[in-house]
Design a protein that fits this description.
- Helix content is 38%, strand content 15%.
- With 206 residues, the protein is of the alpha/beta class.
- It folds into two domains: 35 residues; 129 residues, OB fold (Dihydrolipoamide Acetyltransferase, E2P) (Beta Barrel), CATH 2.40.50.
- The strands form two sheets. Strands 1-2-5-8 form a four-stranded mixed β-sheet. A four-stranded mixed β-sheet has the order 3-4-7-6.
- Helix 3 links the parallel strand 1 and strand 2.
- The N and C termini lie far apart (108 Å).
């Protein structure tokens, strides 16, 4: 039996070179043609992937960049027509009390910092904006609270004094309203205002 296996192995070994020699040599032209077809298919798939990626990017919500007042002013100087989202703490009492900087029933939230080189920043909330806002609950998991009718300005203003706020809009320079601070944003859309509970709210005097 072992002799038979050895004999068959010897015959196969002797026949293999001649079998390989009988195989046709690859045609370079055919290989180049096949490679070109594959590259064409890969290119088409890549273009399709790029188109799908663009569609996905359009469907994704826009990324919001939250700026400090200083960063917002710098962005305004580069592109005055580009809305910005700015977040800041406010001077205690500036939002809940009427000051010479605001007129009527608007809320004037004055930044508690200073711009480089001097000057400050103010967010002006029109009644249409703050009248629709809810006050976020300090208790985790509880819904925001709607101020009672007629108390919106005082309640929202106090919350802003304690915690600051985030607004989105176009920055305006002082020249458009000389009685206001150096730069300000006027907001009349409640969807452009975000109220929150800061990590360390400031205690307010009655």
């Amino acid at each position: 039996m072992q002799l038979l296996v050895l004999a068959l192995g010897l015959v196969w070994a002797l026949a293999l070179p001649s079998w390989a020699e009988d195989q046709p040599s690859p045609d370079p032209a055919a290989l180049r043609k096949k490679l070109a077809e594959l590259e064409k298919r890969i290119g088409a798939l890549q273009r399709e992937a790029d188109e799908l990626r663009q569609q996905v990017d359009k469907l994704a919500p826009p990324r919001i960049v939250i700026l400090t007042p200083q960063e917002a002013v710098e962005a305004y100087k580069k592109n005055p027509k580009q809305p910005v989202t700015v977040e800041f703490g406010v001077e205690p009492g500036s939002a809940r009390f009427r000051t010479e900087l605001v007129r009527g029933d608007t809320i004037g939230a004055i930044w508690d910092g200073r711009l480089l080189g001097g000057g400050t920043f103010t967010a002006i909330l029109a009644p249409k904006a703050y009248g629709e806002l809810n006050i976020p609950s300090k208790a985790k998991g509880k819904d925001a609270v709607k101020p009672t009718p007629g108390s919106e300005r005082a309640v929202v203003g106090r919350h802003i004094d304690e915690n600051g706020l985030r607004v989105t809009g176009l920055i305006r320079p002082k020249g458009e309203a000389p009685w206001l601070d150096d730069y300000y944003i006027v907001v009349d859309d409640p969807s452009q205002v975000v109220l929150f509970n800061s990590i360390a709210p400031r205690p307010l005097k009655p």
